[in-house]
Amino acid sequence: MKIANKPAPLHWRHRRDIKTETAPKPAPEKLPPGAPNPITGKSSPGLRYAPTTRAHCETVLRVFYDFHLSEGTGPILNPFPLDRSRRHGRAHAHHNPDERFRHERQGRYRPAIPKRAPRRIPDAMFNALFAALKHDRDRALLAFWVSNGARAEELLTSRQRDALPGQQVLGVVRKGSRAYQQLPCAADAFVWLRLYQESAWRAGVPRGQNEGLWWTLRRPWRPLNYPAARAMFNRANSLLGTNWTLHDLRHTAAYRLARDPKMPLTDVQWVLGHAHLSTTQLYLPADRDEVIEHVRAHHARRAKSA
Question: What is the pTM of this model?
Fold first, then answer.
């Protein structure tokens, strides 16, 4: 995975023609793989696998062979061993809760993962992205994602009974713990939700307290899943020439909440569902766009005083 390139994806409509010459070639990208987007500054996916992907695969393979070693059904040695400094112990063994976690290398072949600051969508770009949407359902989804900080797949678990406009909360199922949690949302999100529901119910979308909250726009009616929501978001990206992701909306909501001086950081942690407060503290420093704006204002003040 470190030296091999990723396989080129093929659309499901052309999988039957993969062995024939009728299979269309992928359209050339506007930017080379791995090049940063001129609008967002985010790098596009490269030809090779990212370090996070390789680290995840290394963990899965190491745990897989450890299981078969313990059951006596695998090789006598794990081909993905732990680091020699702690071969007979697990990571963060006997950790003191009063101290920070040390950077312990888990596997001998585990790649080093570079630290990257979360990227939020600036307000001007978010307004342009919101205006590029064509349906009330998509506008309601974006309004909820950027106001309650829920993950993209968490918001899609909501039922029609979970939307409570009077209390201004929306119930979701958390990704890790699968716990049900009601998240406070902005008032305009419920306005877009009501506009979407009225048009969807007139078109024949199933209506009921136990029915899903988000549905496809065409028959046959199906609950909206994550790939369909991502395709909707990518269509808006293609109109603007950007490469934002659905998770960037969660980063945007986290930055807006964490940078509010009247918002306690522990409340932000509860809304985002972080297990450690140190994860929420990542949103306290200024991000790239704010630093650029501050430096531009500095140069403008110097030019004005000269």
Answer: 0.82
Instruction: Give residue 11's identity as a one-letter amino acid code.
Output: H
d(CA 215, CA 200): 8
Q: Hey, what are 129's tokens?
A: 């992205």
| Contact indicator for 284, 147 with CB cutoff of 8 Å | no
Report the alpha-carbon distance of residue 75 to residue 238 in Å, rounded.
49
Query: Strand order of the sheet with strand 180-184?
Result: 163-164, 169-173, 180-184
Is the distance from CB of 95 to CB of 101 less than 8 angstroms?
yes
pLDDT in tens, 225-259: 999 999 999 999 999 999 999 999 999 999 999 99
pLDDT tens-place string over residues 99-130:
877 666 578 888 888 888 899 999 999 999 99
DSSP three-state, residue 43: strand
Binned at pLDDT 50, 70 and 90, residue 148 comes out as very high
Q: Which domains does the chain have, with CATH numbers?
A: 1-13+32-84+105-116 (no CATH), 123-283 (1.10.443.10)
Token pair for 243? 């490469």
